[in-house]
Amino acid sequence: xxxxxxxxxxxxxxxxxxxxxxxxxxxxxxxxxxxxxxxxxxxxxxxxxxxxxxxxxxxxxxxxxxxxxxxxxxxxxxxxxxxxxxxxxxxxxxxxxxxxxxxxxxxxxxxxxxxxxxxxxxxxxxxxxxxxxx
Length: 134
What we know:
This protein is of the alpha/beta class. Helix content is 42%, strand content 19%.
């Protein structure tokens, strides 16, 4: 089971993509409109709430989660959600979206994997400039 916190562009894209692979996906977001934006083709569970709220996480069956993704736009929210998932609920794999690549080392100390869209985009642009594919 995969839990995604944050149903903005990245969260929606991930939820749809993972859902099409017939994975068990639950999406949590505090905004109803964000969840509704997933559309009727999304067959996973949608829960309105905060990713640091224990009751919301229990409702999402976090004890069964193999992966927790914190991909909200706000870095502080992602930090808190990732720590709660890892430290309180012992989710085996926690991945957080971190815009600031200088914070990656800090997350490694907490055994939280990170994805930095800033670093990924810069790497892609560099490859494009240098004529490499990737």
